Amino acid sequence: MTGTGTEAWPRCGHSAGGERCPGRRVDPYTACLAHLDSADRAAHLAALRPGADLDHRGTRFTQDLLDELLAPLRDPATGRARVGKADFDEVRFTGEAEVRDVEFDDCCSFASAVFDAMLHLREVCTGGDLQLSRAHVAGDVWLDNTRVAGDAWFNEARFEGTLRFCVERVGRSASFRSLTCAEAYFESVDFERGADFTGMRVAGKASFEGAHFKKGSACFDKAGIEGDMPFDGAHFAQNVTFRDATIGGDLSFLNATSEADVHFRRTAFRRTAVIGPLVCPGTVDFSDAVFESAVTLEVAAKEVRCLRTRWGSTAALRLRHADVDLTDAVPAFPVSVVGRPRPFASPEGEITEPGLTPKQVSVVSVKGVDAAYLVLADVDLTRCLFVEAVHLDQLRLEGRCRLAEPPGGPRWIHRRTLAEEHHWRAPRYRGWTAAPDDNEHHSPEALAPVYRQLRKALEDGRNEPGAADFYYGEMEMRRHSDSASRGERTLLWLYWALSGYGLRATRALTWLLLAMTATVFAMMLWGIPKTDPDPVSEGTADGRRISLTTKKPTPVNPDGPHAQRLSGERFEKSLRVVANSVIFRASGQDLTTTGTYVEMTARLVEPGLLALALLAVRNRVKR
Question: Alpha-carbon dihedral of residues 233, 237, 238, 241, nearest 10 degrees?
């Protein structure tokens, strides 16, 4: 269909200034239509009938000559010109060109044509392909109320004005690869088999409002759009790709519907302030994209990928339902990821979200991210990977951010944990979540500093109770760390067993109660003497001088069966001793030697357990 050069057809015999006319000669004449004399042209046109093929490649046209050519092809009943196959490759059109009320039964080609002014196709219908590949139009190109039954090819075309491709329907594929124009409008077009806009360059706005890409993908790879790209009301049946594209303005997807994925990999957003609201039942991929200005992303999707995405200014990600992957993202300014509780709205009301399962937005990874500029609000972090992120101590967690919890049962206490701790414990203990196959396990040595930094982040945000769980996780990882000495692990084990690292008041109080009970029984059995010794005074009288010495006998150890020692009186005395020992006071009770050592031990241990219990309560309630 595309011409292969001016030697591909018999050329006109007319010459001017030593240059031969490139127009195709009209059989059986030796000149092209533009250079036929009036008699020969009239004879040729008189022989044409509606439905005739036209081949005028390379011919120079004016509007008058075009109207004269189409006149004998018009059907008297409809007033519409009917053409079979039309070849206008490499024509040169002087002045504005309007092709109106024409039906092309077969292909219509203007490949490599040159139009000195505007090209307007109005009320045109092609039964085959429409081709303007490599065409050059000095003005606008308008296709109004046009239908293309076959392919529409505009590859490498250059339009210095606006392209209004307001075609009702393109029956097969549409290709606009490397098209260049000032502005482009593809509004309400039905692309039956998708469309290819790879490498398209638009100096201003490119509008696709109401366009339908039915059975094929919409490809905007390597496109350069300096203005806005509205897709309001558009429909995408297959993937939409903007890989390596450059977009200067906003992308609006108000009331647009998508049945597949949307890819913005390596896309550069120059002055984009808003993207969305975009509803996608699959993946929206911003991996390796670059945002050079402040932007708001509104996306409802199954998955949002921001791997290695670079934000050169502030960004607000307002998301719904999605699993968000921020691995190796580079925020140079504050970037917030917020789970939106309600659907996005349009002037007509809330936007529907077909194909999406309602759930909380889940951040699955911040590995490699500088978290100093990252804000996470109202998101699920139960599967989030934190190891390898930096400046986690400056991460801001706002709203309701849910983290993973240990398995149920009496063995594991309720607390917030990292997904990486689940991955480490899963091979060792039942009930913990195993790591995905593509993720490595991290040792306690790697997890301890992550817990420490997250703890500091919550403490700086005045969330002391929330930070307590991260402190517990840090201590757990230190207790299980192979790099810690045996002495350190022993101390941590005791700290854990006695009070849950100063965070479990119930555990400390239980130990205190057990210690006090043991002390009471020890006192009843061995500490309280058989009888309370009375003071004995002894002296000598020598004349008028009397010298007296008062001594207290050594307490007598109790004897007899143990059951007899467990009396109410001995219990009351033992309880008084224990109660005083908890608050570092001497009871004043006469004790046996064993009882004295028991009391000393109790005065050392039991106040410490009480202090641990009070510390645990404070850590849970302080602000």
Answer: -10
| Residue found by looking up tokens 């090819």 in the block | 153
The continuous run of DSSP H or E covering 365 comes out as strand 362-365
Distance CA 104, CA 149 (A): 10
Question: Which one, of 363, 444, 352, lies nearest residue 402 by Cα?
Answer: 363
pLDDT at 113 over 80: yes
Signed CA dihedral, 556, 560, 562, 565: sign only: negative
CA 52/CA 46 separation, integer angstroms:
12
Q: How far, in Å, CA of 145 to CA of 70, rounded?
A: 19
The secondary structure of 280-337 as a DSSP string is EEEEEE-TT-EE-S-EEEEEEEEEEE-TT-EESS-EEEEEES-EEE-TT-EESS-EEE
Q: What is the pLDDT of residue 499?
A: 85
pLDDT above 70 (res 556): no
CB 21 within 8 A of CB 53: no
519, 526, 588, 594, 598 from 523: Cα distances, Å: 6, 5, 14, 8, 8
Of 211, 206, 119, 127, nearest in space to 157 by CA? 119
Angle at Cα 336 formed by Cα 335 and Cα 337, nearest 5°? 125
- Give the Å distances, CA to CA, from 521 to 246, 563, 600: 82, 11, 15
Nearest to 146 by CA among 177, 122, 130: 122
> 493 in the Ramachandran plot: left (φ > 0), alpha (ψ -120 to 50) or beta?
alpha
Overall residue count recorded for the chain in this entry: 623
State the angle between helix axes of 568-582 and 593-621 in degrees (0 to 180), rounded to the nearest 10.
Answer: 50
Number of H helices, E strands in the chain: 10, 49
Which has the closest alpha carbon to 45: 99, 1, 81?
Answer: 81
The CA distance from 125 to 170, in Å, is 10
Q: Is the pLDDT of residue 273 over 50?
A: yes
User: What residues have CB less than 8 Å from 475, skipping those under 6 apart?
Assistant: 492, 495, 496, 501
- Amino acid, res. 305: R
Per-residue model confidence (pLDDT) at position 262: 97
What DSSP assignment string belongs to 395-407? -EEES--B-B---
Contacts of 519 by beta carbon, 8 Å cutoff, 6+ apart = 574, 577, 578, 581, 598, 599, 601, 602, 606
| Cβ 30 vs Cβ 158: under 8 Å | no
Cis ω for the linkage preceding 561 (within 30 of 0): no
CA nearest to 190, candidates 172, 207, 213, 209: 213
Strand partners, 241: 219, 263
Round to whole Å and give the CA distance between 455 and 37: 92
Higher pLDDT, 490 or 437: 490
| pLDDT score of 3 | 43
For the residues 521-541, what does the mean pLDDT come to?
71
Q: State the average pLDDT over residues 297-324.
A: 97
Gap between the Cα atoms of 422 and 23, Å rounded = 77
